């Protein structure tokens, strides 16, 4: 019998929504990174939302891994937004000098999706990109 899922990755249109449901150790965080990056290519995602609302701690390894996911996703053509950082976690991150780098953040899933809509823009048909009739 397997336990509850630690993370979930769902597709919503051109976006992936990844939710971390509980604290992950370093190996679980690395596995999550590889799974998410794989899904970006497989699903041809144009944006990724990573929801960390369930976490009451974001250590330096997790923060660095989220930054890495954002950079790798960018190189694969997707914009990444981290949502749901709890106030206590944000205070601790600032106090410890931890930084999300160029990673976008938003308050919650709704605002994260709105940010992706603004950043990515409307999806155009492939024929329009090749100069054909849309």
UniProtKB/TrEMBL annotation:
| InterPro entries named in the record | Bact_StressResp_Reg, STAS_dom, STAS_dom_sf
Q: Which domain of life is it from?
A: Bacteria
Q: Which CDD domains match?
A: STAS_RsbR_RsbS_like (cd07041)
- UniProt cross-references to SUPFAM superfamilies, sorted A to Z: SpoIIaa-like
PANTHER family noted in UniProt: RSBT ANTAGONIST PROTEIN RSBS, RSBT ANTAGONIST PROTEIN RSBS-RELATED
Q: Where is the STAS domain?
A: 16-116
Name of this protein: RsbT antagonist protein RsbS
